[in-house]
Amino acid sequence: PLFLGEAAVTVLCALTVYRTVPETRPGPARPADDADLGAAAGERSRRRRFLAFVAVTFLVGLLMQEVSTALPLTMTRAGLSARDYGLVISLNGLLVVALQLPAGRVLARHGPAGPLAVGTLLLGAGLGLTATAASAGAYALTVVVWTVGEILLAPTAMAAVADLVPGHAHGRYQGMYSFAWSAAACVAPVVSGYALDTVGPAPLWGASAAVGALAAGAYFLILRGRRERREN
Q1: Which domain holds residue 106?
Q2: Looking at the domain assignment, is residue 87 inside a domain?
Q3: CA–CA gap between residue 180 and residue 164 (Å, rounded)
Q4: For 124-154, how does the pLDDT look when each residue is reduced to its tens digit (9 = 90+)?
């Protein structure tokens, strides 16, 4: 009954979107002229920028997946129970519910480069702190840090994607962005499990902090350049 109910709700949602959301796809393109050629060159530049953004998002997706793959295994190795993990990870949901809407109003006043960079740094820092945690309270503190990063990341990334995507190809580009998260969900368990078995938790979480810092810098460079061109 649960899965049938979910299927029914999904169908209802699809019908609602079909009936109420207007078509936004632009009409057929006009024959190319000089202005169109310039626009085409700009679109190629935007496409390269978007592909770089997707590659960085894949790295961020790997970090996010560690929460459900490497974190419970690390806590088990530290002698904590499944109940401890459940209580610690529940902080993530509570903080998202409490802070996401207020954070969204604040983030709307800023461009995407800064919030994405700060959010990714906090995500990596929170995961990196896991290497030093030894109690449920310490793990809870790490969850608070990376959850704040997630709250900064999630809405800002979607806004950045909408800005980078050309009007006539929203579906194709959004699909590629979503694929980055799906690919990370497939790869992360293998990478995390292998790392835990070979080098142990501390190097894995240290590497996560390094990847977070790298991704933060990449996000800032990708989107800062985009913003500067729009302002000039």
Answers
A1: 47-231
A2: yes
A3: 16
A4: 999 999 999 999 999 999 999 999 999 999 8
